[in-house]
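Help wanted!
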Amino acid sequence: MAAYPRPVRREEKAPVILDEAEALLDPVSDIEGFMLACLVDASTGMVLASRKDQDDISLPTAAAGAADIANVLLQLTGELPVDGLEDVMVTFRRQLYVIRLVNPEPQILLLVILDRDRVNLAMARRETRTFCASVAA
Amino acid sequence: MSQTSRFTRARQLTSTVLPGRRLDGYADQVTGRLRGSPRPAARECSRSPAAATDPSISGTARSLLRNRAGLPARPPHDPPAPDQAPLDKITAILAVAEPTVDAALELLSVQSRFAKFRPSKVPDIGPVSDISLDALLAEVARRQRMLGQLSVVLSADTALARNPHIRPDTIRVSAAQWALLIRVRHGSRPRDLAWDLSRSVFGTTI
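Answered by r_m:
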């Protein structure tokens, strides 16, 4: 069988609406096991700002997925006695997704993707909560 | 002519983007960035100015009331100031970015009936927030893909009908959802509702 050359991975950064806000996500990128973080407009799935250490994660896909998950859960909060969505943790075999509501209206989400082998879930959750509080202050 | 080249050609003319009723803006041919500012007319009118300053009302609601009462300084819709909290800056930029992307989506759609480019000098629209053209085009392309997938069942111009089998007394909705629901009439379209509420057409449609 012929050996095909490996495709060259494109390293260029995906453009986001709020590119100057990348520095804003610095504290999140210090979390142990950090892979990607972004701020997402939940009503449209639009990525407002992002920061990532790995290129093999599709940012628009992850952001749209986070927005869909949050929207479904926000609808559920109208039907269940749960008093508002705080954060969501999705566990994949190799990664952990932490989704947190940063602002209720307009609904802005923080999505953080972490390497499951390196992350301490409790610490990661605490640090995302601290970050969201600092952003709003 | 492709959508992108239509846009590029328009940029070479230093064209004015017409983002609709909520925003003034233009494409800057020198920097390749889109610049936008909320349109004063979109700052809606009339309610009691006293309510707009009532401390018992939440920040967002008070801000909306300030707009309706014609009072100045609406942080979520004004361009970001250096001393604003990061979240205020983000929401301020989102308030400009969303109508800009929404308008560009309409502008770059093949059958646009509601927006067009026009050659212009740089308009005097005061302080602005800007968006990179690459980011705008990437977001427009993403939205076009999504709307393409949805187009079998829904578009911004699909006439809506109430479902008679849903019992309203079993549903709890947010204030934003309620504002939308009370405006839905038989035959309303997502585009009409979005314009009526000064919201994103794309966001309302999906």
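OP: Thanks! One thing I noticed: Chain A is about 30% helix and 30% strand.
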